[in-house]
Amino acid sequence: MKDYFLKLWIGLTTILIGMKVTFRHLFVPAVTIQYPSVKPELPERERNRLYVNMDDCIGCDQCARACPVNCIEIETVKSLPTEDLGKTTNGKKKVLWVTTFNIDFAKCCYCELCVFPCPTECIYMTDVYEFSEFERESLVLDFATLTHPERLEKKKNFEVLQTQKEKEKAAVAKKAAEEKTAAQVKPVEPKQDSKEENKQ
Amino acid sequence: MMYDWLYQFTGSSILAMFIVSLLPLFVFILPFALFAVLMERKVSAHMQDRLGPMRVGYHGILQTVADIIKLLQKEDIVAAATDKNLFNLAPVLVFIGSYAAFAAIPFSGVFIGSQIELGLIYIVAVTGLVVAGILMAGWASNNKYSLLGAMRAAAQIISYEIPTLLIILTIIMITGTVSLYTLSEMQTAYFWNWLILGGPETGIQKILFIPLMMAGFLIIYISTLAEVNRTPFDIPEAESELVSGYHTEYSGMKFAMFFLAEYANMFAVSAIVSAIFFGGYQSPFGYLGSALNLPWLIPIEQFSWFTAKGLFFIFVQMWLRWTLPRFRVDQLMEFCWKYLIPMAFVILLLVGLITVL
Lengths: 200, 357
Prior knowledge:
Helices cover 39% and strands 12% of the residues of chain A. Chain A is an alpha+beta fold. Chain B has 2 domains: 51 residues, no CATH class; 279 residues, no CATH class.
């Protein structure tokens, strides 16, 4: 009998205690953040989407080599000797046209390892974290500032230069070879001797 | 009375009756359900230190309107193995059961759907239809969770009707009336005339009644809470055990009807509790209308007092929902048969003795 009333009493009082707790929480300010309109403050060293400041990029490929998942793809073309690409903000001379600078954010693991080797500090982490896409291809971002015709032009320029150089080289080599052959007409026999000696 | 006024205004008894019977639905229950769903979400959110719906309208006030529009557009799915007739009938029956209760609820001094002398007993009887509807829904769904939920609901509602009726019986012994209108009229003027504070009589009887009425209020509040399947007693729906109980298979408007019935029931129950113990539509401290000599103001005041009291008890229901965990089935039965019913009997006995003396 005593137990029965004790149970009733405990039941009633504990319900009231619980109600007091929930009532207090009714006036506790909500912890909810109204996300798209109010954004949470991120830590100072947060690692989110990478950004490449192409004005400073010298195309040294160090970030691509540091990347553990190979998500950075860089292609560079040498500039013509007549072209001036300017300087980076820390005084390095730019000599390469960066024709491709793709970062595949589907692969990127946000480790920040690419940021430290950069000699011009042009690749860094931003605070952008909302970049979901419907297709995986659209996560590959192209940072190169050159337009596509420009890229082709630069490549072509380089090829033209290359072929020109090769031609010149070939010409020089031919000339040299001719001169050489002309000069080396006489000592043919000793050379053969030496070869024979070597063989022996 | 509203009916007489409408009868004189339209000159047709059928039209007047029609308007009077539809008025609670369109003027009260539908807007109330819209509001109560939002209130439920907001109260639960704030009790958990969240914000709740915030996007639709200012602080999400149009959220339920958007939800209703969504529910209206939804496909009405009827699974192949269901008993189609019963399946379609069940939500209507549940809604009729809870809507019919509103006929005897006095919203204010001039508006009561029907002045039945047996008001309270009628409400208890007609809400029994809800049990039939729920059982029908659970059986016709042909789904084990629905059936389990329906069985639990039937067992629970029938068990908890006993303490409710015992307390109503004590009220009959004190007041000698079952009409909610007469009950409310008895507790007029000031709040010390409310039955929770011993009723309109004076003297030693009133003081003796106070603790008994408090206990009686607690019992009837708990048992009606169980009858509307709200949280400490929500084992028929028990979403962590039974998906969502008897309305698992329902979708679209039929689901909305169950929902509407649930909220209508919540208000009906709160209205009964407030009409019995808290003076119904009576103001706790006189009327502004009688003080300013504006008789047309009194019904409006009464209506707002009635709504405020009902909403307060609904708020307490929500409050309890976020305070207490769910009962087990055996605990539920134990609580009813070992605690509520004996207590109600004791109160009945004591009140009988006091009234005789």
